[in-house]
Known about the structure:
CATH superfamily: HIT-like
Number of domains: 1
Order of helices and strands: HHEEEEHEEH
Bound molecules: zinc ion
Structural class: alpha+beta
Radius of gyration: 15 Å
Number of strands: 6
Amino acid sequence: MPEKTMEWMARERWEALVRGEDCPLCAACQSTEPVNRYGYTIADLRISRLRLARNQYVGGYCVLICTKHVRESYHLAVEEQMLFFQDLMQAAQAVDQVFRPDKMNLKILGNIVPHLHVHLIPRYYGDPAPGRPIDPNAQLKTLLAREYEERVQLIREAL
Ligand SMILES: [Zn+2]
């Protein structure tokens, strides 16, 4: 995904992204390469792909990407909405089982890439954002390749 910015991108760029042109999340769903600069593919579910974020500042931070390019969750057909929600529940429970957080935050934003995806952000007692959302990219924490693989495998087994 593009770097965070405090300004809206050019209007033409935004509208092209909404149409799915050069959409990085479409690319992430279609890629057969399990690892890219943003993270590791864990599994393909009913209508989504679950990925472990490369930045593990918040342990267990994952992103569930809908395999269909829609801007909003309510743009999916009702049957697809149910499939996506089932995927989300399955993914969140798996992350919960592996990381045992004190709370799970599920964030649907899409202000940088308008392609339906959900941030699964485990919350741990004592973390630095009590009472409010935590920015999983506030700091950068990367792991060794084998540590990513281990997390991917544990989540896969919990799915
Ligand atoms: Zn897309």
